[in-house]
C-alpha cells in the first residue's frame, strides 16, 4: 500500500483502498516536485561570447563543464543527479538583462514616476534572474526603484507556495515565472468513446508495487470542471475529440478501447491564473517555458519522463515510474494559455487583447537582448540559436 506519487503528478491518497491495492488520485494540492537528484547548472564564470569563434566553441566549453559536474555526482551513485540548464544560467547576465530591459521599458512607459517598480518572481532556481535584473537596473537606470543599489533592502524572500497565496496585492506589479510551469502538476483525462464525457485518471498500486491506471467520471471535481468549461468558452477542442472518424471506427471494432487517447491538462497552471485574478488584479505577467518537447510519452500535451544513468539520459514511455529518481516535465500550449488568460484574468474572448502576446524565445531576445554582447567572432549568436522550443507570454 505504498502511496504512488509520480513527479509532477502529485499525490492525494483516495479513501478508496482495498486489501491488495491503494488508489491514488493525481493531485494538485501539493506543490510539484522536481527529481530529488536534480542540480541546476550554474557556471561560476560567465561565458564571454565575444571571445569565442562560433557556437561550436561554446558547446565544447559547455560540455567540459557538464562533464566536471556529472563526474562529481557520478562518484556518489551510478544514478547520478540530473544537470538542468536554463537560459538564465547559460546566458547570464544577458538573458536576465533582457528580461530587465522589458520590465523597465514597460514600467517607464506606463507607471514611472508615480508608482514603484514591484516585481514578484515565482521561482525554483538559484535566484540568478532577480540578481541580474537588479544589476541591470543599478547599471542602466538612474532612477530610484526601491533603492536597487542595495539588494538586501529591496528584496524580500517569501517562503510560500503561490498556490497557498492569500495576500491581496492591489498595486501594479510584474509577476515572473521563468522555466517553472513545465513542472506544474497536471491531471490526466480520457474521454468515453460513446458519450465523449471526460474521465479522470487514478493510479492503482498492487501488493507488488505495480502501477495501473484506472478511470472515474470527473463528477464533482470542481477544478477540472472549471478548467474544461473555461477551455470550451475560448473555443478550444481537444485533438482527441477531433478524430471523429477514428472514434467512430473504434465503436464498431471488437475488443477496441472504450476511452480515447490520453490528454494531460494543466490544472496547476489554471490555478495560477485564478490566483493572479483574485490576488494580483493589477499584475503584468511574464511566463516562459517549453512549448514542445522531444521524446515525450503518448498523449496530448504529454510530458517527458527521464532519468540519468551512467552519464546517459534515459527517456521513459510512462509517467508511472519510481518517485524521486525521475524528472517529469510538460510542454505548454501557449496559444491556449493566452486565450485562457484572457478569459480568466481579463474577462474577454480569445485573441481580443493585443496587450497579451506570445513570443518565441528568439523574438524576445532579438527585441530586448544585447545582441552585440552575445555574438561570437564568427557572427553566430547562441542566445538566438538555442531554446527554439521555448515561448513566452507577456501581458
Structural class: alpha+beta
Beta-strand content: 15-25%
- Give the H and E element order: EEEHEHHEHHEEEEHHEHEEEEHEHHE
Please count the helical segments: 11
* Largest β-sheet summary: 6 strands, antiparallel
C-alpha geometry: globular
For the CA atoms, what is the radius of gyration?
A: 23 Å
Q: For the residues shown, what is the average pLDDT?
A: 83
SS elements, strand count: 16
**Low-confidence region ranges:** 1-35
Helix content: 25-40%
Distance between the termini: 46 Å
Catalytic activity: L-arginyl-[protein] + 2 S-adenosyl-L-methionine = N(omega),N(omega)'-dimethyl-L-arginyl-[protein] + 2 S-adenosyl-L-homocysteine + 2 H(+)
Keywords: Methyltransferase, Mitochondrion, Transferase
Protein name: Protein arginine methyltransferase NDUFAF7
Subcellular location: Mitochondrion
Write the layout of secondary structure elements.
Blueprint: E1 10-17, E2 22-27, E3 38-40, H1 55-74, E4 82-84, H2 87-90, H3 94-110, E5 119-121, H4 128-140, H5 151-154, E6 173-178, E7 187-191, E8 198-205, E9 211-217, H6 222-233, H7 244-251, E10 263-265, H8 267-279, E11 283-290, E12 304-309, E13 312-315, E14 327-329, H9 334-346, E15 357-360, H10 361-368, H11 382-385, E16 390-394
Parallel strand pairs: 3-4, 5-6, 6-11
Antiparallel strand pairs: 1-2, 2-8, 7-8, 7-10, 8-9, 11-16, 12-13, 12-14, 15-16
InterPro entries: NDUFAF7 (IPR003788), NDUFAF7_sf (IPR038375), SAM-dependent_MTases_sf (IPR029063)
Function: Arginine methyltransferase involved in the assembly or stability of mitochondrial NADH:ubiquinone oxidoreductase complex (complex I).
Catalytic activity: L-arginyl-[protein] + 2 S-adenosyl-L-methionine = N(omega),N(omega)'-dimethyl-L-arginyl-[protein] + 2 S-adenosyl-L-homocysteine + 2 H(+)
Amino acid at each position: 500500500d505504498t502511496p504512488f506519487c509520480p513527479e509532477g503528478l502529485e499525490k492525494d491518497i483516495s479513501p478508496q483502498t482495498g486489501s491488495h491495492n491503494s488508489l491514488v488520485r493525481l493531485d494538485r494540492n501539493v506543490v510539484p516536485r522536481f527529481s530529488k537528484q536534480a542540480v541546476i547548472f550554474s557556471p561560476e564564470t560567465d561565458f564571454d561570447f565575444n571571445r569565442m569563434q562560433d557556437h561550436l566553441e561554446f558547446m565544447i566549453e559547455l560540455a567540459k563543464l557538464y562533464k566536471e559536474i556529472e563526474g562529481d555526482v557520478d562518484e556518489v551513485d551510478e544514478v547520478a543527479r540530473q544537470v538542468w540548464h536554463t537560459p538564465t544560467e547559460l546566458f547570464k547576465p544577458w538573458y536576465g538583462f533582457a528580461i530587465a530591459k522589458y520590465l523597465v521599458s514597460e514600467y517607464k512607459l506606463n507607471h514611472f514616476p508615480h508608482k514603484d517598480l514591484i516585481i514578484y518572481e515565482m521561482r525554483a532556481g538559484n535566484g540568478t534572474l532577480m540578481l541580474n535584473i537588479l544589476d541591470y537596473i543599478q547599471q542602466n537606470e538612474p532612477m530610484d526603484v526601491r533603492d536597487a543599489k542595495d539588494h538586501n533592502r529591496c528584496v524580500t524572500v517569501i517562503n510560500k507556495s503561490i498556490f497557498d497565496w492569500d495576500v491581496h496585492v492591489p498595486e501594479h506589479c510584474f509577476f515572473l515565472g521563468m522555466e517553472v510551469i513545465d513542472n506544474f502538476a497536471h491531471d490526466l483525462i480520457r474521454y468515453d468513446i460513446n458519450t465523449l464525457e471526460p474521465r479522470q485518471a487514478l493510479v492503482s498500486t498492487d501488493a507488488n508495487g505495480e502501477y495501473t491506471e484506472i478511470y472515474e467520471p470527473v463528477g464533482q471535481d470542481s477544478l477540472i470542471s472549471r478548467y474544461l468549461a473555461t477551455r470550451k468558452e475560448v473555443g478550444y477542442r481537444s485533438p482527441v475529440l477531433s478524430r471523429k472518424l477514428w472514434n467512430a471506427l473504434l465503436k464498431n471494432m471488437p475488443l477496441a478501447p472504450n476511452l480515447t487517447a490520453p490528454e494531460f491538462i494543466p490544472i496547476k497552471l489554471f490555478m495560477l491564473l485564478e490566483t493572479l485574478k483574485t490576488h494580483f488584479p493589477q499584475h503584468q505577467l511574464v511566463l516562459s517555458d517549453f512549448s514542445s518537447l522531444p521524446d515525450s510519452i503518448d498523449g496530448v500535451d504529454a510530458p517527458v519522463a527521464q532519468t540519468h544513468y551512467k552519464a546517459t539520459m534515459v527517456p521513459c514511455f510512462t509517467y508511472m515510474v519510481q518517485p524521486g529518481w525521475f524528472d517529469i516535465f510538460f510542454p505548454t500550449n501557449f496559444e491556449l494559455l493566452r486565450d485562457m488568460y484572457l478569459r480568466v484574468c481579463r474577462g474577454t474572448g480569445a485573441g481580443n487583447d493585443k496587450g497579451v502576446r506570445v513570443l518565441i524565445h528568439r523574438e524576445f531576445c532579438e527585441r530586448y537582448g544585447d545582441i552585440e554582447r552575445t555574438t561570437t567572432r564568427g557572427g553566430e549568436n547562441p542566445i538566438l540559436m538555442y531554446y527554439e522550443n521555448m515561448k513566452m507570454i507577456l501581458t
